[in-house]
Specification:
Chain B: UreD, UreF and UreG form a complex that acts as a GTP-hydrolysis-dependent molecular chaperone, activating the urease apoprotein by helping to assemble the nickel containing metallocenter of UreC. The UreE protein probably delivers the nickel. Chain B: Required for maturation of urease via the functional incorporation of the urease nickel metallocenter. Chain B: It is found in: Cytoplasm. The complex is a heterodimer of chains A (295) and B (291). Chain A is mostly beta strands. Chain A has one domain. Chain A contains two helices and 18 strands. In chain A, the strands form two sheets. In chain A, strands 3, 4, 6, 7, 9, 10, 12, 15, 16, 17 and 18 form an eleven-stranded mixed beta sheet that branches. Chain B has 291 residues and is mostly helical. Chain B has one domain. In chain B, helix 3 crosses helix 7. The two termini of chain B are 31 Å apart. Classes of the chains: A mainly beta (295), B mainly alpha (291). At the A-B interface, strand 8, strand 11, strand 13, strand 14 and helix 1 of A face helix 3, helix 4, helix 5 and helix 11 of B.
């Protein structure tokens, strides 16, 4: 594969990791910040890390892995400098991106990189495995663009699993570019972009969405779900109703979280719609909610 | 072919399935399904997402239900009755897996309504400890695929048949609804379903396979069908050891038998448009179908 700079590179294995540590004064320190090109990490502020891609791709054959460990009581904000362009490799191999994130008790993680663009011919797999302590907070945004301008996208499967205190909160897998379901009005219709933001834990609710997602212990969640459902059956009205606007749904989950789900025609519209839904899903904002004095 | 499977999949089974269009009514209203071609694409997308997930959950529920039936036969019909019935825990856990795969509250409600009606009906048609323990464990109604799998177990079907019934349900309801909503030629629509038949079988096989094979290696090769599930929880060591959870002690069957890790990795293919359709359908002023 010839990259934009004209180099030819072979496929890479990279394993980067970030681990936070609670300072005695209550602040967050990055205990580990291990880059592994092309996954390059830069600290750009207190508890803020930017992902800087230092090579084209990922390309087919690349296996990238990022481990994130947010220690109890700490806060981490992960962003990226630019969008990720997934390209085919020299051989017919998938590119793979795995993100394992663990968020401890009272900790908060915001993960909002720029979009992933699926270039023609790519074959990409993503797995995000998010494990939350029951009073952890998370804001996790994922944006996928179906090809560059005027281009048909390659293929992608993106699996997302979020577990809170051992109980499943959200499991979903987006499949893009499968000829069997391409253009289905049940999946993406005519949209060129799909995105979602999971807001979970403290702050993951809103007056617009009712009460069902506010309680965060496992028992309380199950109870609330059962009560909420029983009430829905009795009154015929949904408890914790979704909020809807063109191409955007703010969906209270059965567990302690809200999913903003968006379909859009382009990346600008995708971000606008997501931000509209995120404001409803987390009216007070979630991470980074740095207490004054920590910056 | 088990004859009970025919009864289970029959639209004349009095379990209220005819009242749901699976998003088809709203898609017709929104103008994204206008004729047989759109409908075919709608059904293929639905089968690849909601259909595959339903098939996998139904297969899991059928396996769990069959274990409940076996256990009760071994201990002479006493399947346990109180709150402490150990068989209730795995039903709740499987139902929670269905919840986690259904982000839309409107879809969760529709799934529970259909599941509740199905269990109510099935308990009279195929009395079984599987259905009794499910009804006790999730009294407000389990998700429809879970109820369908339990019903399949009660009727004597195997998990692969339960998966096939779920895949069939995922497209026949919307197809029939579209015939009524758009005034389509019923024969032409049944032709679409006949064309989908191989995919129904493939979906059921993929669901069945997903129940017993999962990979801890997310770099495993691309496959579209059968689905290759992911290990969901990196901390869950059990995920990498398929033998764990295969309890043989009858007291443990139904508790540890279906390991959480196994269910965690079941397919979770998502259809964002179906979520949007389900929510906007709730807000529609006139509705022929419940969902």
């Amino acid at each position: 594969m010839r990259t934009s700079s004209g180099d030819v590179r072979s496929s890479v294995r990279a394993h980067a990791s970030i681990r936070t540590e609670l300072l005695s004064g209550g602040g967050t320190r990055l205990e580990t910040l291990r880059s592994d090109p092309p996954l390059t990490l830069r600290q750009t502020g207190p508890g803020v890390v930017h992902l800087v891609s230092t090579a084209a791709g990922p390309l087919g054959g690349d296996r990238l892995r990022l481990d994130i460990d947010v220690a109890p009581g700490t806060m981490l904000d992960i962003r990226s400098i630019a969008s990720t362009l997934v390209l085919p490799g020299p051989f017919a191999e998938d590119s793979v991106m795995v993100v394992n994130a663990r968020v401890g008790a009272g900790a908060s993680l915001r993960f909002a990189p720029e979009p992933t663009v699926l270039a023609a011919g790519c074959s990409h797999r993503v797995a995000v495995r998010l494990s939350l302590a029951r009073d952890a907070t998370v804001f996790w945004r994922e944006e996928i663009v179906f090809g560059r301008h005027g281009e048909r996208p390659g293929r992608c499967r993106s699996r997302f699993d979020a577990v809170v205190d051992g109980m499943p909160l959200l499991r979903q897998e987006l499949v893009v570019g499968d000829p069997a379901s391409d253009g289905s009005p049940a999946m993406y219709g005519t949209a060129r972009c799909v995105g979602s933001t999971l807001v979970a834990g403290r702050g993951a609710t809103g007056t617009a969405l009712g009460e069902t997602t506010r309680e965060t212990t496992r028992e309380a969640t199950e109870d609330a779900t059962r009560r909420g459902h029983a009430e829905a059956v009795r009154t015929g009205k949904a408890v914790g109703r979704a909020v809807l606007r063109d191409g955007c749904a703010v969906l209270p989950l059965a567990g302690p979280g809200v999913l903003v789900s968006v379909l859009a025609d382009d990346a600008v519209q995708l971000r606008e719609r997501l931000e509209w839904g995120e404001a409803l899903a987390a009216p007070g904002g979630v991470a980074p909610a740095f207490p004054s004095g920590q910056r | 072919m088990h004859a009970a499977l025919l009864l289970l999949a029959d639209s004349r089974l009095p379990a209220g399935g005819h009242a749901h269009s699976g998003g088809a009514e709203e898609a017709v209203r929104a103008g994204t399904v206008t004729g047989p071609d759109d409908l075919a694409r709608f059904l293929r997308g639905r089968l690849a997402t909601a259909g595959l997930v339903a098939a996998a959950l139904a297969a899991a529920a059928c396996e769990l239900g069959s274990a409940a039936v076996d256990t009760s036969e071994r201990v002479d019909g006493d399947a346990g009755t109180g709150e402490g019935d150990p068989a209730m825990l795995p039903w709740r856990r499987l139902d929670a897996e269905a919840d986690a795969r259904t982000a839309s509250p409107a879809q969760r409600e529709a799934a529970r309504t259909q599941g509740r009606l199905l269990v109510r009906t099935a308990r009279r048609i195929w009395p079984s400890p599987a259905l009794e323990s499910l009804a006790r464990a999730v009294p407000d109604g389990a998700h429809h695929p879970v109820a369908l799998g339990a019903t399949a177990a009660a009727a004597g079907c195997d998990p692969g048949q339960a998966a096939l019934a779920a895949a069939y349900w995922s497209v026949t309801g919307p197809a029939t609804a579209a015939v009524r909503l758009l005034g389509l030629d019923p024969v032409a629509v049944h032709r679409l379903l006949a064309d989908l038949a191989p995919s129904l079988g493939a979906t059921a096989r993929a669901a069945r396979t997903a129940l017993h094979t999962w990979t801890a290696d997310p770099g495993a090769p691309w496959t579209t069908n059968p689905d290759v599930p992911w290990t969901a929880d990196p901390d869950d060591r059990r995920a990498s050891s398929p033998d764990i959870g295969r309890a043989t002690d009858p007291d443990l069957i139904g508790v540890e038998f279906m390991s959480d890790a196994c269910w965690a990795a079941l397919p979770a293919t998502t259809a964002p448009a179906l979520d949007l359709l389900a929510e906007s359908h709730l807000r529609a002023e006139t509705r022929l179908f419940v969902s």
